[in-house]
Design a protein that fits this description.
single chain, mainly alpha, Serine Threonine Protein Phosphatase 5, Tetratricopeptide repeat, 2 domains, 70% helix
């Protein structure tokens, strides 16, 4: 929408209000975004949730996801993890990766739904296959810990690597551990040091410590006491 793209938020808000009241789904969603951000109108999470709900009821996938977030955070609506999971489910069924990931979290933590690691794996997998890095990392964790699946360090390494390549520090650290401890891969201190280093420069404290130990012992790197 040209008015919104040109940052003429006040006029955009008026346009969206008129269209939203006529049931135009994109206008309802965009009006919710405007209320949530406070651009062109006073910030109002209740109004944002109201318009997300109207768009979500019509099947707007991002509105369904955002309404799930609103319920999970108690923004403009009562805090309600069960309703959050319900809306994540609707968006996940439409293939929305963020919703699939959040639904996986809900099942893993028993938040709004019964705890079920297998369902968590299923949801994470769908998001991970779309390249969603946090889902890839969590899938690696689940395989490493054998939650809902048979423990499989090779699969853990595979998913950690995918997330690590996308810059997830926890995945880089975990992949370093796997190489250092020969879990699912051949022991390779050079690779361990490489992945610890990538996590360490992002401020990952455990990776920084492990990298320091490797320099102290000269494992995978030239020994350096400095």
């Amino acid at each position: 929408m040209k008015l919104y793209a040109s940052k003429n938020y006040t006029e955009a808000a008026e346009f969206f209000k008129k269209s939203a009241k006529q049931g135009i789904i994109e206008a309802q969603y965009n009006l919710a975004i405007i209320y949530a951000s406070g651009k062109g109108v006073p910030q109002d999470y209740y109004q944002a949730a109201t318009w997300y709900h109207k768009a979500a009821e019509q099947g707007h996938v991002q509105a369904q996801y955002n309404l799930g977030l609103a319920h999970a955070n108690g923004q403009g609506v009562a805090l309600d993890y069960q309703r959050a999971a319900t809306w994540y489910q609707k968006a996940a069924e439409q293939g929305y990766a963020k919703a699939q990931y959040n639904l996986g979290l809900a099942h893993a933590n028993g938040q709004g739904v019964a705890q079920d690691y297998w369902k968590a794996v299923n949801s994470y997998y769908k998001a991970a296959m779309q390249g969603f890095a946090n889902a890839q990392y969590n899938l690696g964790l689940i395989y490493a810990n054998g939650q809902g699946v048979s423990q499989d360090y090779r699969q853990a390494a595979n998913w950690y690597r995918k997330a690590a390549i996308q810059g997830i520090a926890n995945a880089q650290y975990s992949l370093g551990l796997i190489y250092a401890n020969s879990q699912g891969v051949s022991q390779d201190y050079r690779q361990a040091a490489n992945w610890y280093h990538k996590a360490a420069i992002q401020g990952h404290a455990k990776a920084q410590w492990n990298l320091g130990v490797m320099y102290d012992k000269g494992q995978g790197v030239t020994q350096d006491y400095r």
